[in-house]
Description:
Layout: E1 4-9, E2 13-18, H1 21-27, H2 29-32, H3 54-74, H4 81-92, H5 114-128, H6 134-140, H7 147-153, H8 159-172, H9 181-186, E3 188-191, E4 194-198, H10 202-220, H11 223-244, H12 253-260, H13 265-270, H14 272-279, H15 284-294, H16 300-310, E5 316-320, H17 326-339, H18 347-350, E6 352-359, E7 369-371, E8 377-379, E9 392-400
Parallel strand pairs: 4-7
Antiparallel strand pairs: 1-2, 3-4, 5-9, 6-9, 7-8
Helix pairs in contact: 1-4, 3-4, 3-8, 4-6, 4-7, 8-10, 11-12, 11-16, 15-16
Amino acid sequence: MSKVKILNDPVYGFISIPYGIIFDLVEHPYFQRLRRIKQVSLTHYVYPGALHTRFHHALGAYHLTCQAIDVLRSKGTEISDAEAEAVGISILLHDIGHGPFSHTLEHTLINVTHEQLSVMIMEQLNQEFEGALSLAIEIFNNRYHKPFLHQLVSGQLDMDRMDYLNRDSFFTGVSEGVIGYDRIIKMLAVHNNHLVVEEKGIYSIEKFLIARRLMYWQVYLHKTVLSAEQMLIQTLRRAKMLRHRGIKLGVQGSLNYFLENTFSEQDFRLNRAILLERFTSLDDTDIASALKYWQEHFDPILSFMSKNLITRRLFKLEFMDRQPDSDHIRLLRQKIEKQHPYSHDVTDYLLIMGKETNTAYSTSKEEIQILLKSGEVKPMSLISDHGIQPKIFTKHYLCYPKDVKI
């Protein structure tokens, strides 16, 4: 029998999955659920090809991590087989806690972050696999004595970002996200147990950081994508409020369970097995089916929002440099109430306000470290002439039905 399972990936070609615990985790129902969760939520409403899943991404990030381990070993970094396997498990399961439509419904359907859920699912799997994930969990939580292993999984230059930029660029067709991932990986090294990049790789890092910023504005925070995602959030908010009032929604199983009840991280920890079993039965299809059903619901706001999402009649979204003034908001409320006189709280759902931030590089987090030819290590922000500044860009927005004219 072959020692590895070969998968054909559209981005990297062949990906090798070794038989043993890695293969068993991929085959586990928790991981197979990721096939039914889209990587970039409702982005396909703008970029029709963006139908790839968290399953694709997790395997891609695992593949890049294996390459990085090989490079670091070739440069004399000691990484045992157990450590290599553990960091592989850690990256493979890094997104296992995502719910339906990924980030969009975080804190809406379930008030627990996907990172917290990922850790709890890993702990549950560790119990099932009789402690075989203990080292992986240590690495994931950054409690292992070799921080560079955690930095491969979570950091400003981790394999998670490396894959999602490449993969999202590939499936959206937005070429600005293409990065030289293979060169960046070959430039990785370890200094004092921390991940560093050799100086000759700095231009590839610069392109990586710029690509990430461009992908955020062109893809992840595209105004039409943001409009669709905000509409979905408000639709689920409305559904949850109606269910709490005792109104039947026509949905069953785990979706109905989480609409009826609100759980904290503490609740999940106290009732881990039961709540995780419920959570891991949820995926995009539950929400999509509910939206189709709710188109005919008697609640006018729920049916209006659901119908518009299903038929892609999305709200208008205006970006602005500063917070909208109160007079403008008051006028919008009046127009919405006149155009859509459904109920007294209609503007709580049909007028959406918020802000989004984006930066190419953050100095508030652990910085990317550059290993100079002299042997000195400096943070990226202190190396001049490379055009990367830790500036945060903020855009405010208003989102409302297109038939409301100002």
